[in-house]
Amino acid sequence: MQIGFLTCPGTMPGSPTRRADAFEHDVQINAIRPALEVRGGKLSEIDWRAPVEAFAGCNLVLIGTPWDYQDDERAFLAKLDALESAGILLCNSAATVRWNARKTYLRDLAERGVATIPTLWVEQPSAADIARAMEEFGCDAIVAKRQVGAGAEGQSIHHRQSPDAGWAMHQPAMIQPYLPQIASEGEMSFLFIDGKFSHALVKRPAAGDYRVQSLYGGTEEAMVPASPDLDAAQAVVDAIPFETPLYARIDMVRGEDGALLLMEAELIEPYLYPRQGPELGPMLAEAIARRIGNK
Ligand SMILES: Nc1ncnc2c1ncn2[C@@H]1O[C@H](COP(=O)(O)OP(=O)(O)O)[C@@H](O)[C@H]1O
Ligand SMILES: [Mg+2]
Q1: How many structural domains are present in the chain?
Q2: Distance (Å) from CA 262 to ligand 2 centroid
């Protein structure tokens, strides 16, 4: 059983251009590799830009940590198609990735009954759209973010008392009410392997910030979810309009009425937080072996 794990120069061990947060790649590899080895599997890290021939012999390829794919999205999607055409089982599938790369997938999930954050979808928003969103949502603080993006890049928060008349975004955006629960309770992540719950954690922003990412001082802690919260996360996984993903990270935040709302369903290259879920590696290895066996 030969498993490929896609990387990029920013995450590949030994690369001269490794990112400061590439330790997350190592944590993930150290959780998955030994669990695969117990089952006689072998995990190889391969740059996603390597030619398809470099994947010869792989039964299954995990998308892993190709954290720069946004810079070269077309080539990335073409490589995923090429891997599938070569008969390699890709997890998650190229079709799932294409759908998940644009946050408009949230609309599809909302149509399937998932509770999402109310959102205005605007191609090139200006300050007038922020004012309109405040009226529409009846709130005093608004978050504007990219439809295609990650790591809170290009994101901004707007307050009614301090409007910025010159503000604009020059790409497709999504505008949401700011949910204050992000700063009190935090954002919850639920990890699922083959559609089954693995573990959960809560991510909290640094004091004075609302972004939970470690880059902005956010911290994370394992947690045992209450059953209505777990049910809400499971309902998101069950609503994904493709085959059950091998791995999924469901990020949620609590709305005003106390129910969890979907922030993001991460199906491409999410960090799976193995430190908060020691069973992750064995669960993933078992699911991989099952998929290869069923092929
Ligand atoms: N509507 C919102 N209310 C409060 N905080 C938000 C909201 N939208 C985003 N955030 C904060 O910004 C972070 C990044 O937003 P997110 O939608 O997860 O995009 P990405 O992680 O892809 O950059 C979230 O983790 C959260 O901390
Ligand atoms: Mg996020």
Answers
A1: 3
A2: 10
